[in-house]
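This entry is retained here.
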Amino acid sequence: MKVSVVGAGIIGLSAAWALQRNGHQVTVYEQGEIPNSLGSSVDQHRLIRFPYGDELGYTHMVSNAYQAWEQLWEDIGTSLYVQTGTLVLAGSSSNEDWAYSSARTLEKLGFLVDWLDRDRLKYNFPLFSFDSGERGFYLNSGGVLLAQPIIEKLSQYLTHQGVVLHPNSPIDEVDTTCAQIVLANKKVVDADILIIAAGPWVRRLLPAFYERVIPSRQVIVYIEPPAFLASRWTTAPMVLDVAPFNNFYLVPSVMGTQIKIGSNSFSMSGEPDYERLPSESEAIATYKLCQHRLKDFQEYSLIDAKTCFYSVAPEKHFIVESIGSSWILSGFSGHGFKFGPLLGLALADAIADRFNKDELNRWAAGYQLTENINIKV
């Protein structure tokens, strides 16, 4: 079949990859360059990890996501993943916070969670400071996906496989009933199936999604460690710091990337075409999220700050819906990158009638199904 894909982030390109593998004729339209520096998928890195609070469905999906990435690495001829391990930190006062919920969910799936007290944390992770009474746990699993190189390499691979990529091709209108798009230059393109993976711009194309998906402007910063600590950061874990008053994530330096800090809280505001430059005060506020956690914090330098727009759906659950002759993939809430190839393969299975559409919708939204899925990898 002839398939049009709107959006060349990880979700759109993964859909193109999976559908091309199934023999479909695929064309991708992207409003900017590929990679698009304004897109949600383009940055130095993204994280893949098992801890997911009480979200049993998404925790379970991570194993399948790893399998899908392995298939993608095999196809494109290289792996763009670095395992770092995952350090999850918790406060001492609440047994109901995200870290404890994550541990309980992991244990339901057979993971061994070994809680570390302050002394063991200090011994095992000397780059960080810990307060009296703090606890945490460490998993060997989890790591960094090299986001922009992935988009670049996958785009090149798809072109070689016959997928047609159209950068700088904004869309004015979509007709989900008949899988038709109208480009900004008024060219009309018909297809058998239309895939809309437009990230935070989905509301411009589909007004019905205006209340369902909220753009969230996030400020991230990159920091540089002092020279005497630089080598240690190449073997540091990712950090999910959900202790009271902190609430940030940290991405370590891998493969020449920089240490990144971002807030775990959503702004739930902003429009993706505007407010792209963070203010100095925003950058400093994000930088200071880790001042309590990093030992020798005063020795670290703030070297860059950027904005990224997430598309946030209710309860941060993914939206994968069939409407007419189209599929809408949206609401990935800052945690969809890790599932990109898996979602692409699941979509291809649904289009091939190997996966019930309603079941796909529920599974993508993080709900456990009555039977285990068997996605064709």
About this structure: The first helix runs from residue 10 to 21. Residues 298 and 323 are 53 Å apart (CA to CA).
